[in-house]
Design a protein that fits this description.
1 helix; 38% strand; four-stranded parallel sheet; mainly beta; two-stranded antiparallel sheet
Length: 97
């Protein structure tokens, strides 16, 4: 659903369309130095992205269209590295990590 907003600024008419339910890409941050860069690149494609820490409980809502896992490759196999249960996510939205 799109909302049309019209405005007159300096004698010029402008029209803006806002999405009532904004679709987004969720970026789970596992401590990568590139998380903000990834978010910026996604936004440059005109896609809303939201960065969340990996330990925050994840609610998969209809507006989330994909998830990016952003972490350091050096810590993947280390004891005590952050782990997340992806069983509720797999197969429901695209997952990149």
């Amino acid at each position: 659903m799109l909302l049309k907003i019209s405005n007159k600024i300096g004698g010029k008419s402008t029209v803006c369309y806002l999405c009532a339910m904004q679709e987004k890409i969720l970026i789970l941050d596992f401590g990568s130095q590139y998380t903000q860069l990834i978010a910026r690149r996604v936004r440059e494609l005109n896609v809303y992205s939201e960065v969340r820490p990996w330990g925050k409980p994840l609610e998969l809502t209809e507006d989330i269209k994909g998830i990016i896992l952003s972490g350091s490759a050096a810590s993947v196999n280390n004891q005590g590295s952050p782990r997340i249960d992806l069983s509720e996510i797999r197969g429901k939205v695209p997952l990149l990590g």
